[in-house]
Specification:
This protein is an alpha/beta fold. It has one domain: Rossmann fold, CATH 3.40.50. Helix content is about 40%, strand content about 25%. The chain contains 12 helices and 8 strands. Strands 1, 2, 3, 4, 5, 6, 7 and 8 form an 8-stranded mixed sheet that branches. Helix 1 packs antiparallel against helix 10 and helix 11 crosses helix 12. It is globular. The relative contact order is 0.14.
Length: about 280
């Protein structure tokens, strides 16, 4: 029954019908350009999450690391302090502007960054092989099989992917707003099955994780989450009512806690079978 499900095509269908499909239609990176500063603030509040991820990656001082969809440097900057060099790739100019600012603050100088989509990167032209390739919650490519094959070809030693296992648990907010459960197009199981069909038998680790976001007050929380969820004005009261019940006080501010199951998929390159 080999090939009864084409997982790459299924991924395309799920990706195209997901609430984040507009990222496919807009010019490369533009969706995140206006959200970069808010995203940067959010990630800086959750450094422990990055530390847990990095602890799972096998690194050495002589390594070169490629970060696909590096964003504002949440992983690239701390990794750069442990290795010889890092190449950060991201389609958003706004994200890379924040990355540059964060590099200056952290006094990190061994990161090279490219403002391109991974789909447009040419191995041997834009980049050379790196010891390790990572992609953390950045696998939004429509043809994910092609994207994974390029990562595999780029890595001399290992590839590490970080994504979700199951749905992001937001307390039912998405369902209240849109009347349907949030799409799970980024679930790790798609990636595992696509890799399997490619002859790559990856390792998987799953763990519980919690994400915290802090806000000065309810108005700030509503404004920022309205932008994050790209909500129309008529849905704002639903969001406000939900947040008034779920936000908790923490150190003089309001805190929103969201839970999920995180997954790390990793494999050693040049050790798998030909598909």
């Amino acid at each position: 029954m080999e090939g009864i499900i084409n997982w790459n095509e299924l991924w395309k269908v799920m990706r195209s019908s997901s609430p984040w499909r507009r990222t496919l239609d807009e010019p490369a990176g533009s969706f995140w350009d206006g959200r970069a500063k808010q995203f940067n603030e959010s990630t800086m509040q959750n450094r422990e999450r990055a530390e847990k991820q990095i602890a799972k990656i096998k690194l050495a001082p002589e390594y070169s690391v490629l970060d696909v969809g590096a964003g504002t440097g949440r992983l690239a900057i701390p990794i750069a302090k442990c290795v010889k060099s890092v190449t950060a790739i991201d389609p958003s100019r706004g994200m890379l502007a924040c990355l540059k600012e964060n590099m200056e603050k952290e006094r990190v100088e061994n990161i090279t960054y490219l403002n391109k989509r991974w789909e447009d990167i040419e191995l041997g032209v834009d980049i050379e092989q790196h010891d390790v390739v990572i992609a953390s919650h950045s696998l939004a490519m429509l043809d994910i099989q092609d994207a994974l094959a390029k990562m595999d070809a780029t890595a001399k030693k290992c590839v590490y992917l970080f994504t979700f296992a199951g749905r992001w648990m937001d307390g039912g907010l998405w369902e209240k707003i849109y009347g349907e459960k949030r799409s799970s197009w980024s679930d790790y199981i798609y990636l595992c099955n696509i890799l399997h069909d490619m002859g790559i038998y990856a390792n998987v680790e799953i763990w519980d994780s919690e994400f915290e976001q802090h806000y000065v007050g309810l108005d700030e929380a509503v404004a920022k989450l309205k932008e994050t969820y790209d909500l129309p004005s008529e849905k704002e009261e639903i969001l406000r009512a939900h947040l008034s019940k779920t936000l908790v006080e923490y150190n003089g501010a309001l805190c929103l806690k969201r839970k999920s199951k995180s997954a790390m998929i990793w494999w050693q390159t040049n050790t798998h079978e030909e598909a």
